């Protein structure tokens, strides 16, 4: 009997030991996560992030920016639900940035450009959101608080740029840096996780530069001597749907 | 004039329970459809990132605006002091509350995250007309319940007129708010116009009254209560006037859009080249949903026939759903015009729609959810008139009109 008790005790000890090691490992791991966390202070209006897209440099057939966005935000992990046609899936899957090809009605000239959330100063999506889930950060980034988004899609109705996507299907795989879930709306957030970790470029702009096209200049609209303001000064540019006077953070040259 | 006596709905138990069983079945199927969509996600519906609001919104918006319209009958009695309408008030209040509950249920169950309703009820963004609508809808329900109390309880009678007035103003605000959901969307060619708000108000008058008249005629006929020609004539004349009002607003809406050169393409799409949407607009909204019922309601003989009047009401409801289809779906299917003077050759992946008309085919679960909400409204009404005294015993001319009563006395 005694031996039996000892055996049991040993087993329990081993279990407790394993639990202690596990707990220590968890604490250690979480402290690693904590130390890996980015921003510790609130976002301020010191910066207003934005972009200039030079359509004359945007190359035909190149999708580097789109591919980089998909990889960065885990959008390439989306799986087409079984039984859904490719055609419909194309219009249901989340797309934060898309390559648009235009032809001028008069001259027939072709223009290419990446189109994403334009990060308006006065965003219609933020105006209409009933819960405030769609919001604008102090640094100008327009994004969705996925904890309070109820999936009403009113922001998608309001967006003049078709920049937002609704997550139609259950999400199996996602990144911690870009959490996603069925039934919520999402869109480009100018790689906010990168900015919050001290980086100062987006995945799309970085990828575009790596291809050598340099069509996307990312930067701070508030920084008078910064590269974005210099680029805006040097190149004639405009906003898409300028008539709406939304003062977008994303500007286009050659359009 | 005799005192108006209200009685519970006295149809045979088998018929009553049979009706409830049918409605309960439709509700259950609608609930299962909602569960199915919630479990799998919206990919099982016809909706996409281009057409983000589908068939459930057609039903929800229709039911919500019909709810405020259904209350008009009570308002005419209370606010405008028309004696003939007073016996109709209780049913009007009940139907208004029932339709609103049905419509809101559909709206909530179509959310991407319906379980977060509590978030919508506790976290507000007051720049959103949606947020205001939450107050307008819940306030409307509370007001209607209070209004019914003033109609049914002697103690409430002194408050009848003030509450009735307030409810009338509230329902105007509610439908203005619902119309503004669309009217305030500046980015879309079909919306971005303040005229949608008053247009929705007139639509609510017509659709609410059509639903009201159908329910009244059916419930009174079912247990043999007389409806005099006077009441029928008054109601059908009012209905015809409201339909003419919708036609007027529809005309002004399109003329306004046609006048602005930047909306030419959209008008061409909707009125001429939009395929299904053009067909639904002309055949569903205008011909079958407006002109045909107008013809019936102003016809010297047909308009006296209860069955023909019921058919006209049915057509108006059909026309209302067609109008919602065109306003809600057609306007989303039309591409957002972002690049004037340009043709969009590619817009992301092949099926990612931009620069061309988006396709939308209603899925069966969406349709079932919409029908489920409608059944909820009818279920509440059926139970209400059965267990409480909502229906007047007689709507014969001599019982509702003091002048006729005086003459026959």
Which terms would index this structure?
heterodimer; A: 255 residues; alpha+beta; four-stranded mixed sheet; two-stranded antiparallel sheet; 8 helices; 33% helix; 16% strand; B: 409 residues; mainly alpha; 15 helices; globular
SSE order and pairing:
The complex is a heterodimer of chains A (255) and B (409).
Chain A: H1 2-36, E1 49-54, H2 64-73, H3 86-92, E2 97-104, E3 110-116, H4 124-128, E4 134-136, E5 142-144, H5 154-158, E6 165-166, E7 185-186, H6 192-196, H7 203-210, E8 216-220, H8 227-234, E9 237-238, E10 250-253
Parallel strand pairs in A: 1-10
Antiparallel strand pairs in A: 1-8, 2-3, 4-5, 6-7, 9-10
Helix pairs in contact in A: 2-7
Chain B: E1 6-7, H1 13-40, H2 55-70, H3 72-78, H4 89-109, H5 117-122, H6 129-152, H7 160-183, H8 196-222, H9 229-259, H10 264-273, H11 276-298, H12 306-333, E2 342-347, H13 364-387, E3 391-392, H14 397-400, H15 402-408
Helix pairs in contact in B: 1-13, 2-4, 2-7, 2-8, 2-12, 2-13, 3-4, 3-7, 4-6, 4-13, 6-7, 7-8, 8-9, 8-12, 9-11, 10-11, 11-12
Précis, in short:
The complex is a heterodimer of chains A (255) and B (409). In chain A, a hairpin with a 5-residue loop joins strand 4 and strand 5. In chain A, helix 2 crosses helix 7.
Could you characterize the architecture of this molecule?
The complex is a heterodimer of chains A (255) and B (409). Chain A has 255 residues and is α+β, with helices and mostly antiparallel strands. Helices cover 33% and strands 16% of the residues of chain A. In chain A, strand 2 and strand 3 form a beta hairpin. In chain A, helix 2 packs across helix 7. The N and C termini of chain A lie far apart (87 Å). Chain B is mainly alpha-helical. Chain B has one domain: Formate dehydrogenase/DMSO reductase domain (Formate dehydrogenase/DMSO reductase fold, Up-down Bundle), CATH 1.20.1630.10. Chain B has 15 helices and three strands. Chain B has helices at 13-40, 55-70, 72-78, 89-109, 117-122, 129-152, 160-183, 196-222, 229-259, 264-273, 276-298, 306-333, 364-387, 397-400, 402-408; strands spanning 6-7, 342-347, 391-392. At the A-B interface, helix 3, strand 2, strand 3, helix 4 and helix 5 of A face helix 5, helix 6 and strand 2 of B.
């Amino acid at each position: 009997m005694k031996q039996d008790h000892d055996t049991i005790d040993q087993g329990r000890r081993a279990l407790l030991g394993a639990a202690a090691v596990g707990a220590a490992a968890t604490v250690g791991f979480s402290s690693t996560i904590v130390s890996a966390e980015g921003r510790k202070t609130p976002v301020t209006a010191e910066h207003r992030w934005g972009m200039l897209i030079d359509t004359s440099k945007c190359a035909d057939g190149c999708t580097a920016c789109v591919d980089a966005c998909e990889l960065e935000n885990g959008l390439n992990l989306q799986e087409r639900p079984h039984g859904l046609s490719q055609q419909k899936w194309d219009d249901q899957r989340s797309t934060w940035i898309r390559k648009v090809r235009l032809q001028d009605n008069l001259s027939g000239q072709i223009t290419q450009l990446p189109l994403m959330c334009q990060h308006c100063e006065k965003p219609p999506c933020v105006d209409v959101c009933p819960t405030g889930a769609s919001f604008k950060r102090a640094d100008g980034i327009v994004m969705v608080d996925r904890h309070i988004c109820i999936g009403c899609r009113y922001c998608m109705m309001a967006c003049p740029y078709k920049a937002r996507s609704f997550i139609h299907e259950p999400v199996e795989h996602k990144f911690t840096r870009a959490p996603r879930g069925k039934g919520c709306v999402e869109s480009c957030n100018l790689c906010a996780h990168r900015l919050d970790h001290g980086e100062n470029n987006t995945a799309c702009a970085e990828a575009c530069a790596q291809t050598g096209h340099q069509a996307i200049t990312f930067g701070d609209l508030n920084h008078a001597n910064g590269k974005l303001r210099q680029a805006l000064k040097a190149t004639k540019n405009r906003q898409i749907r300028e008539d709406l006077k939304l003062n977008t953070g994303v500007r286009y040259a050659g359009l | 004039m005799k005192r108006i006596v209200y009685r519970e709905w006295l149809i045979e138990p088998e018929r009553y329970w049979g009706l409830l069983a049918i409605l309960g079945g439709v509700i259950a199927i609608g609930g299962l459809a909602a569960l199915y969509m919630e479990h799998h996600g919206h990919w099982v519906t016809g909706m996409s990132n281009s057409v983000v609001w589908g068939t459930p919104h057609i039903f929800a918006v229709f039911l919500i605006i019909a709810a405020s319209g259904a209350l008009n009958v009570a308002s005419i009695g209370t606010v405008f002091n028309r004696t003939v309408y007073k016996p109709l008030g209780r049913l009007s209040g009940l139907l208004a509350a029932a339709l609103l509950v049905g419509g809101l249920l559909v709206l909530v169950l179509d959310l991407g995250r319906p379980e977060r309703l509590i978030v919508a009820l506790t976290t507000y963004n007051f720049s959103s007309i949606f947020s205001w609508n939450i107050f307008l809808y819940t306030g409307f329900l509370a007001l209607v319940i209070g209004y019914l109390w003033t109609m049914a309880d002697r103690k409430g009678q002194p408050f009848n007129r003030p509450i009735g007035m307030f409810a009338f103003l509230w329902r105007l605000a509610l439908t203005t708010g619902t119309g503004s959901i669309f009217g305030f969307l500046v980015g879309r060619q079909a919306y971005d116009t303040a005229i949608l708000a008053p247009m929705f108000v007139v639509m609510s008058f017509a659709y609410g009254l059509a639903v009201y008249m159908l329910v009244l005629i059916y419930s009174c006929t079912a247990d043999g209560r007389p409806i005099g020609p006077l009441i029928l004539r008054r109601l059908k004349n009012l209905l015809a006037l409201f339909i003419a009002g919708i036609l007027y607003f529809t005309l002004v809406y399109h003329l306004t859009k046609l006048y602005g050169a930047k909306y030419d393409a959209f008008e061409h799409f909707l009125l001429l080249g939009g395929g299904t949407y053009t067909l639904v607009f002309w055949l569903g909204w205008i011909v079958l949903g407006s002109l045909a019922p107008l013809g019936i309601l102003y016809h010297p003989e047909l308009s006296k026939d209860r069955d023909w009047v019921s058919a006209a009401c049915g057509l108006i409801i059909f026309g209302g759903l067609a109008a919602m289809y065109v306003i809600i779906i057609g306007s989303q299917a039309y591409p957002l015009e972002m690049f004037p003077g340009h043709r969009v050759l590619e817009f992301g992946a092949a099926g990612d729609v931009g620069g061309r008309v988006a396709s939308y085919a209603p899925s069966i679960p969406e349709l079932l959810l919409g029908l489920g909400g409608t059944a909820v409204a009818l279920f509440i009404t059926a139970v209400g008139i059965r267990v409480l005294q909502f229906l007047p015993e007689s709507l014969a001319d001599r019982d509702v009109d003091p002048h006729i009563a005086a003459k026959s006395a």
